UniProtKB/TrEMBL annotation:
Residues 72-359 form the ABC transporter substrate-binding protein PnrA-like domain. This is BMP family ABC transporter substrate-binding protein. Residues 1-20 form the signal peptide. It comes from Blautia hansenii. Residues 28-42 have a biased composition (Polar residues). The keyword Signal applies. Residues 28-58 are annotated as: Disordered. Pfam families: Bmp (PF02608). It comes from the Bacteria. Gene3D superfamilies: 3.40.50.2300. Keywords: Signal. CDD domains: PBP1_BMP-like. PROSITE patterns: PROKAR_LIPOPROTEIN.
């Protein structure tokens, strides 16, 4: 939201339980129809195959003739959160490639739980001449799939999902867990009560949310083995009231740092009101709660959007899937709030960043203990991408579910 394009594991198909774009309240999604873990892994493996031997099915498009459609579940004008982060990526792409404002067709506040509105928005983009449409939220996926078949000359690029085809439909996402690990280090060094809260949009059935919470908790344990992470689930990608209430409940439990995997900055503003600290998500929430936000986990979506649109212009776009990470700049944390982070935090974060970017550390390495006394993983190995994106339905050992 953010993201830099490295030779990335291009074609990892994402799973049905990956993060849906957090949108306006009417866009709250029901993820109960997600695939089983085995089906998710199979989907991911299938998507790992090269599409059409890397050859594009599309001719070059003159830059002045290009139009780019973007479907947002929320309103980027809110200035914070998921849709804002995606739109900042679109703005970066537009600037890098020198496109006019009239060449970007935005459809905002399109609830992804409403397939009729979703289809209408996409058809309007097609009617306005868009050669590529970025659909930023999970439940836009099936509409993309159907319209891609109906309109083979239009490119449909879907964020956070797992479906794709061999011609004009792909998906894109990233290793957000890497940045969450770093943010866990920040939180673990700051807590004074050894109780850290985490407002989670979805429960353990959602691998992306759960994996993110686990990565955060692993980072906490790295610097503070005595701390526990209290996870409270809202069952909504965006519900300002529920996010506020969850943060209040965690603070009442004694949590003095509040992390989050949800759209609004409410957990951060609630932390500030209570005189505790927090870790934001999607955009830099230090803007919303400067006295509380230690750092934020962010996407630089411009990394992908710039690459993809340049390929449309060049006539080299293929339906390969994209799964970026910290090494190509897609995900990161914002600069630390030096006024309130614990002494030595910057040094610890840089050590961890080097491990990830230069030394091959993948967060989910080796044998990992779960909070129910079991273990996952193997010594000397790391969880593969399909498992990380579709098979993490367990919580790390220091997590307590509230």
């Amino acid at each position: 939201m953010k993201k830099k394009i490295l030779g990335v594991l291009l074609s990892l198909a994402m799973v049905g339980t990956l993060m849906a774009g957090c949108g306006q309240q009417q866009g709250v999604e029901d993820q109960n129809a997600s695939k089983t873990d085995s089906a998710q892994t199979e989907e991911s493996a299938d998507a790992g195959e090269d599409k059409e031997d890397g050859k594009s099915n599309f001719a070059p498009v003159a830059k002045e003739d290009l139009k780019v459609g973007v479907i947002h579940i929320g309103d980027p004008a809110d200035g914070s959160g998921y849709s804002y982060a995606h739109d900042q990526g679109i703005v970066e792409m537009q600037k890098e490639l020198g496109l006019e404002d009239s060449q970007i067709i935005r459809k905002n506040n399109i609830p992804d739980a409403d397939p009729t509105m979703t289809e209408q928005a996409m058809r309007e983009c097609i009617e306005e001449g868009c050669q590529i449409i970025f659909a930023t939220s999970f439940n836009y996926m099936d509409t993309c799939e159907a319209l891609a078949e109906e309109y083979p000359d239009v490119i449909f690029s879907h964020g956070t999902g797992y479906k794709s085809n061999d011609t004009n439909f792909n998906n894109y996402f990233g290793r957000i867990y890497q940045a969450r690990y770093l943010s866990g280090i920040v939180a673990g060094m700051k807590t004074e009560t050894n109780k850290i809260g985490y407002v989670a949009a979805m429960g353990s059935e959602n691998s992306e949310v759960t994996g993110g919470a686990d990565a955060f908790a692993i980072g906490v344990a790295e610097v503070n083995p005595d701390a526990q992470v209290y996870v409270k689930v809202t069952n909504s990608w965006l519900s300002p009231t529920e996010e506020t209430n969850a943060a209040k409940a965690l603070i009442a439990e004694g949590c003095d740092v509040i992390g989050q995997h949800c759209d609004t900055p409410n957990p951060q503003t609630e932390a500030e009101s209570a005189g505790v600290w927090g870790v934001g998500y999607n955009s830099d929430m230090m803007n919303d709660a400067p006295k509380a936000t230690l750092t934020s986990v962010v996407w630089n979506w411009g990394v992908y959007y710039t690459q993809a649109v340049q390929k449309v212009i060049d006539g080299t776009w293929t339906s390969e899937n994209y799964f970026g990470g910290m090494d190509d700049g897609l995900v990161d944390i914002t600069p630390l709030n030096e006024d309130i982070v614990a002494p030595g935090t910057q040094e610890k974060v840089e050590e961890a960043r080097k491990k990830i970017v230069e030394d091959g550390f993948n967060v989910f390495d080796g044998v990992l203990e779960t909070n129910d006394g079991k273990t996952v993983g193997e010594e000397g190995k790391t969880l593969d991408d399909a498992t990380i994106t579709g098979g993490i339905n367990w919580y790390y050992k220091n997590i307590v579910v509230k």
